[in-house]
Amino acid sequence: MNTRSVLVSFRQAKNAMGLYPQEHPAVVSGVLGTLKALRDTMAESDMTLTLVQGHLYREREPQPHESLEFSDLLAGLRGAGIETVTFTAPVQVNDLRQAIAFSAGLSPDPPEQSVRFNEHPYSPEDLGIADDDSPRVRYAAAMDTLKKAMLSVGHDDRIPMADATVAVERLLEVTVAQPAAALLLATLKSHDGYTFYHSVNVAILSLAMSQNLGMDPEASKTLALGALLHDVGKARVDAKLLNTAGRLGPDEWAEMRRHPQEGATAILASAAPGQEFAAVVAFEHHARYDRTGYPLLGYARRPHPFSRLVTVCDVYDALTTRRSYRRAESPTRALLTLAKGAGTEFDPAMVDLLVSMVGVHPVGAVLELEDQSLVVVTAAPNTERIEALLVQTASGERLTTPEPVIVDEKRVVEQLPADIVDVQPSEFLDLVG
């Protein structure tokens, strides 16, 4: 029962419809891909997906990881007034096309045959929804807070700093109580809504590094507030520039380089006493250790240590995420890039700290073993033996329930970018102690 494959295909089709005419190959491919995913997933039975209070359910079964990974898609469906989607086998391609078009706001008429909306709504009581304070929920709450912050910046309103402070406090609690789970959660990637996932990941990585440095809680929260909000200035940059596949022209690059100042200005206009360091982080996160980045600093000292720490986390997460203009790198290759830039672009001490914290095979790294099986690392190794989950056997079978294994490092052939092998390491959060 692969709900995720259906959502991946549905999102691709919906995005394609927003860009191209209905007859465009990308739209046709997206619709047919969704149809195949549905038929593979449903077999001969019907399927109802329910969206309630930010949670996704398949029938009455919660889909916790999909609720987080596809939060933008689910928010768009709720915005279109869709609370449930019922698929009746066999799903017909024209009904599915109509459903996707309606959800994208491109058709006023919802489907009525093999795909139907709001036919079988469940209440929170029906689904047994209780208060949930899990790491996933805290991550989602931080992302929602960031969305509100960027919306505020885009409209020249004040950032809800109190909400952002609560969000980082709750992430700090997870990082202290469940450090491996926090690092695994920080591997969550999404090509859609990149800025939101990226900024929350940078906040988690920054908090983890603060714990390794022995920072007191107040300093950690101040650091994480800057990490969470470091890119809010992008809300004042033309959205088309953020995902441009080719090189930016001089005028476009000049606009892109404005986002640190814009972010710092917005934070200062909203900050309470003691929160000013968040603006410093936003202002300096592209300044480079040698002060040759942007904006050019008009003072003799190097960027603030908080800014140097966040810069390392920012680049590490960016490199390990697929973008429209480049592939994702494996964690090891990302660490090598940071090491090459130590002393110029990056603070060598911060690079060393990150490398020592995540290890050669970081939590969430996907490893190919000598028998061609795949495992996901679940704990930073202290010896040559690696704690992991077996997710794919030597014969190529994907396991519905991954199996805990201890791997001898000598068996590791290669570390692979997760998206290349279609593995989402954060999906296994519940299996990490």
Characterization of this structure:
- By secondary structure, this protein is α+β, with helices and mostly antiparallel strands.
- It folds into three domains: 3-127, no CATH class; 135-358, Hypothetical protein af1432 (Orthogonal Bundle), CATH 1.10.3210.10; 366-431.
- The chain has 18 helices and ten strands.
- It has a five-stranded antiparallel β-sheet. Strands 9-8-7-6-10 form a five-stranded antiparallel β-sheet, with no helix packed on it.
- The longest helix is centred in the middle third of the chain and has 20 residues, at 135-154.
- The mean pLDDT is 89.
Strand content: 5-15%
Distance between the termini: 25 Å
In CATH, what is the class of the largest domain?
Mainly Alpha
Approximate helicity band: 40-55%
Main β sheet profile: 5 strands, antiparallel
Name the CATH superfamily assignment of the largest domain. Hypothetical protein af1432
- At the fold tier of CATH, the topology name of the largest domain is Hypothetical protein af1432
* Quaternary state of the chains: single chain
The value of Rg in angstroms is 22 Å
Give the helix/strand class.
alpha+beta
- List low-confidence stretches: none
Discrete helix count: 18
What is the helix/strand order? HHEEEHHEHEHHHHHHHHHHHHHEEEEE
In total, how many domains does the architecture comprise?
3
Instruction: Estimate the global geometry from the Cα principal axes.
Output: globular
Mean pLDDT: 89
